[in-house]
Design brief:
5 helices; c-terminal domain of poly(a) binding protein; 0% strand; rod-shaped; mainly alpha
C-alpha cells in the first residue's frame, strides 16, 4: 500500500510561511528553506524586541523626568522618592509627558513635593 502524504496540510503550512516572507529581499521571499529560516529569525527578533521596546521607553521616560526635575533643582531619584512620600501615584509615562508637553504643571508638581 502506498504511503499517504497529507499534501493539503503541507501546502497550507508552506503558504503560511511564504506569506509571512512577502516583501523580503532575494531568495528569502521565494525559496522555501531560506524563507522558512528568515521568517523564524524574524519572529524571534519580534518576540525579543517587544520586550526591549518596553525597556527603551522606560529609559526614555526616566531621562525626560530627570532632565525636567533637574531644571527645578531636584534629581530624578529625590523627585521620585518625594512623590511616593507625598502619596502621588503617577507613572513614569505620565510624568514624562507632563515634563515635555506641560512644563508648568510639572513645575507645580515639583513645588508640591519639595
Amino acid at each position: 500500500m502506498p504511503r499517504s502524504v497529507n499534501s493539503v496540510a503541507s501546502r497550507k503550512r508552506r503558504k503560511k510561511i511564504m506569506k509571512l516572507a512577502k516583501g523580503y529581499f532575494g531568495a528569502r521571499k521565494n525559496v522555501w528553506t531560506v524563507a522558512k529560516n528568515a521568517v523564524e529569525k524574524a519572529l524571534q527578533y519580534a518576540y525579543r524586541d517587544r520586550r526591549n521596546k518596553k525597556r527603551a521607553f522606560r529609559r526614555l521616560w526616566i531621562a525626560r523626568i530627570n532632565a525636567a526635575a533637574r531644571m527645578h533643582g531636584m534629581s530624578y531619584s529625590k523627585f521620585m522618592y518625594a512623590l511616593s512620600q507625598a502619596d502621588i501615584t503617577l507613572n513614569r509615562k505620565v510624568l514624562a509627558d507632563l515634563a515635555m508637553n506641560h512644563p508648568d504643571t510639572f513645575k507645580a508638581l515639583v513645588d508640591k513635593v519639595k
